[in-house]
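Friendly challenge for the regulars: who can give me the structure tokens for this chain first? No prize, just bragging rights.
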Amino acid sequence: MKKFSLYLVLLAIVAVLSACGSSDDTDDTSNQEEDTATEVVTDERWEDVQQSGELIVGTSGTLIGASYYDENDELTGYDVEVMREVAERLDLEVSFEIMGIDSMLPAVQNGRIDVAANDIEATDKRKEEFNFSEPYKYSYSTMAVRESDNSGIETLEDLEGKKAGGGATTIYSQIAEHFGAEVITYGNAPNEAYLSDVSNARTDVVINDYYLTKFGVAAFPDFDLHLHPTLMFHPTEQAVVIPKGADQLTEEINNVLNEMREDGTLSELAIQFYEEDASVQPEGEIEEIEGLEL
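First reply, four minutes later:
Bragging rights claimed.
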């Protein structure tokens, strides 16, 4: 009788332990499935990039200093070389798709390219649709105007009624429109097309990044053109554009950018292409523009 009772007790203990084990296993499996599902969503683009062994980067090839063709017809520039270094440190090949800025962001969304690097500002509105890396460049906006008369522009409010050359979807065109300028749009045109039109008065102004405008103006010394001497506005941060939800890819790129910042590579590349360290925030008072939804 005692043996039978002991047998029942042992069975009960085994049953309880089995039930506990089953419950733990179920929870672990559930958690593993949830983690796996999260990884599939989060890491899909990163996994695709790893499997292909290649990072496809959208850029314009038309921005002096950032993304342009040198005298040997080789694609180079700060953004280009930053992405070459990022890919190398991730043990990936890199290829560049040349396209206009207006088609670059849709190309990130539809998967034609993996990321975009073209002096693109990380705005709050864009962050709703894309992931962005940590900034690799800090800057602000300024204007290319006629040297003879500043194109009649002394304040931002003087943009009203002026003609501003720019891309249809750029932040700089939004700024021009915000102050009442008419935006004259171009395709993936070189700097010369924009700047020559200001010089010959077909347009009045090009609003753009300080570094890009500085080099653009310097490249055409025969034009009636200079950097506006007093206007500094709209501080900016430029970053790599990454598909929304591609969090692992974002983390991998950020890790490399942080390494490059710490070991001085970002500073070296910035000084190489801009003659100033664009990888750190600029000094001086830069005007914020109120009421501009970017």
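The chain is about 45% helix and 20% strand. The longest strand covers residues 137-145. Your move, everyone else.
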